[in-house]
Design brief:
Layout: E1 2-5, E2 11-14, E3 23-28, H1 52-66, E4 75-77, E5 84-86, E6 95-97, E7 101-104, E8 111-115, E9 119-125, E10 130-136, H2 138-142, H3 145-157, E11 165-168, H4 181-190, E12 198-199, E13 209-210, H5 212-222, E14 230-232, E15 257-263
Parallel strand pairs: 4-6, 5-7, 11-14
Antiparallel strand pairs: 1-2, 2-3, 3-15, 7-10, 8-15, 9-10, 9-11, 12-13
Length: 268
């Protein structure tokens, strides 16, 4: 990913693989906002104790940095599931209930999701100029959030998995993500090669660490996406709390960062 310093102090990261494509996606950091500790400073969660006015100002600052209008952002009321909403300009400013993913072919419509360790997923279809974004924690991942997003784009836009470009943004990495028996059981039952996703840095018999990134890669490859067309940020939020919020590393006393993505106009 590429780090971007905006004029108003906001810092975001963009996917390298999207640089020459007519789509934009920015993952925010905790820099450039107005929230005090422990939400310092560009927090987008109203539900974690921060003042609503701070969050609204942070939304405005991010939108300004990106050349967008905060009132146009389409959000999800995220539930750690696999639900996906198809949206267009009539949904601008809406919060889509019960969804963790959004798809659109509406040029310029900003899609916004929130994170603090879960994986931001993005799928861009350059043939049909369509976009999908997804919030994928461990539960959404093992339940098939990534292929669900891909299938929704196939159904809506006839997207071909062999032609899409995928980005997996900053999230908790395998170095930090110690998990319990429930994760092991569900991953073992539902993922293509679960043994490749668990390591035991603390020794045999101790809780394993889970590779959320590769779990999503496995599912996308199984669904037909070439591995060469999947960009993994490699940024472990739990190891980079100076830049990103991490629910695990900060014991829940933190804000949420955002991924905002939209389709750009294609020059004819």
């Amino acid at each position: 990913m590429h780090r971007v310093q905006h004029a108003n102090g906001v810092i975001t990261f963009t996917f390298t693989a999207l640089a020459d494509l007519p789509v934009a996606a920015h993952v925010s950091t905790r820099h450039g906002g107005v929230s005090p500790d422990p939400w310092r400073s560009l927090n987008f969660s109203i539900l974690r104790g921060d003042a609503r006015d701070h969050v609204l100002e942070n939304r405005r600052r991010l939108a300004t940095a990106l050349g967008l209008h905060a009132a146009d952002f389409v959000h999800c009321r995220q539930v750690h599931g696999t639900g996906i909403a198809k949206v267009d300009w009539e949904n601008a400013g809406a919060v889509m209930d019960g969804s963790d993913g959004l798809i659109t072919d509406a040029v310029g419509l900003p899609l916004s999701l929130l994170f603090a360790d879960c994986a931001p997923l993005l799928i861009y279809d350059p043939v049909h100029h369509a976009l999908g974004v997804m919030h994928a924690g461990w539960r959404g991942t093992v339940n098939g959030a990534a292929p669900a997003l891909l299938w929704a784009m196939q159904a809506a836009y006839d997207s071909d998995p062999a032609q899409v470009q995928v980005g997996i943004g900053p999230s908790i990495g395998p170095q930090s993500y110690e998990v319990g028996a429930e994760v092991v059981a569900l991953a073992t039952a539902r993922l293509p090669d679960p043994a490749a996703l668990f390591t035991y840095p603390n020794g045999a018999g101790r809780n394993p660490h889970f590779d959320l990134w590769q779990a999503n890669v496995q599912l996308l490859v199984q669904a037909g996406v070439p591995v060469a067309q999947i960009e993994i940020s490699g940024i472990d939020t739990a190891q980079h709390t100076a830049d990103f919020f991490s629910h695990r590393a900060e014991r829940g006393r933190c804000g949420l960062f955002s991924m905002v993505a939209w389709l750009e106009a294609i020059e004819r």
